[in-house]
Task: structure prediction
Amino acid sequence: MTGKVILPKFDNYILLNKFGLRLLGLWPIPEDSAKWKFTLKKLHVSLVYVLLLSLLVPQLLDLYILWGDVDANVENLCTSLTTFTVLAKLTNIVASRGVFQKSLATMKENWDTIMRHDNCPEEREILLKMSKVGFVFTRNYCIIMYITAGMYFLRPLVVGSGTKSPHVKEYPFCAWYYYDQFSNLTYGIFYFSQVIIGFFCGTGNFTLDSLCLVMVYHACAQLRILQKQISQLTNDGSDDILIVERVRQLVKLHKKNIENARNLEAVFSGASAQQLLVSCVIICVIGLKLIVSLNDAFQLIMYVAYMQLVIFQIYLYCSPGDELINQYTGNWDALSSR
Result:
C-alpha cells in the first residue's frame, strides 16, 4: 500500500515574504472579497506611510539643523537614505499593484501546475531547487537585517550620549523632535516609536528586496523547465500531430514566460536601479563612519554589520539577474537542433 505523496506548498517557500507583505498591507486579497476588506487594506497601507514619514521627517529636520557637522550628517544619512528607499519601493509596489498581483498569481499558478502528481518529477525538482535558493537568501537577509536593526535599537543604551554628540537626546536613528528636549516621558515615547517604525522599515526593506530575487528565480526555473520540455519533445517517438500540439503548448508557455518577465520588469526595474544607487552611497558613508568609530567597539561592530547588509542587498539584485541571463543564453546552446 503506497502512502499519499505530500507535495511542498507554495506558501512554505514564500513564508517570510508573505509575512512582510502582510505587515505592510501589500498582500493581495481575493477580488470577490467584501468592500470593507479593500477599505481596510487601503487604511493599512496609509498607516504604514504615516509611520515611515513620521520617522523620515524628523530625520530630515536633524539633517537640516546639524548641516555642516560632517560626522552627524554622515550618521544621519546611513539610516535616512534607507527610510527613503523603503518609502520609494513601497510607493512603486502600490502604483503597480495590478501587475504585482498578477505576477504573484502567475507564480502560484505555475507552482500548482508543476507540483501536480501526474507531472514530471524532474520539473518539480527544478522548481524546488530554485525556490529553495530564494528562500535561503531571504532567510539570511532577514537575519542580518534584524540583527543590524537590533544593534541600532540598543546603541543609545549601550554607548550613551557621549560628550562629542551634538544631540541632546540619543535615539536609535538620528532625528530631531522639538518636544523631547527636557521631557524624559516624551523622549521615551519617541524612542519606542522609533523601535516600532524601525521594525516596519527593516521588514519592508528585506521583504521588497528579497521578493525581487524570489520572483526572478521563479522565472529562471520556468525557463529551465521550458528548456527541458523542448529537449524531450521527440524523445518518446510520438507522431507528427502530437508533436505539433506539444509545440503549440510550448509556444503558449514561452509567451506566458515573456509576459511574466515584462511584469517583473515593470514592478522592479526602477526600484532596483534606485536601490543599487542608494546602496553605493550608503557604502561610502558607512566607510567613513567605520574610520571615525575605530575606538568604539560596539559602533564598529554595528557599522560592519550594516556594511555586510548593504553588500548582501546589492548581491540580492545582481545574483538573480545573472542567473536570468544564463537561462536566456548559455543553457540553450546544449539543446539539440535535430
The CA atoms of residues 9 and 111 lie 8 Å apart. Residues 10-334 form one domain. The first helix runs from residue 10 to 13.
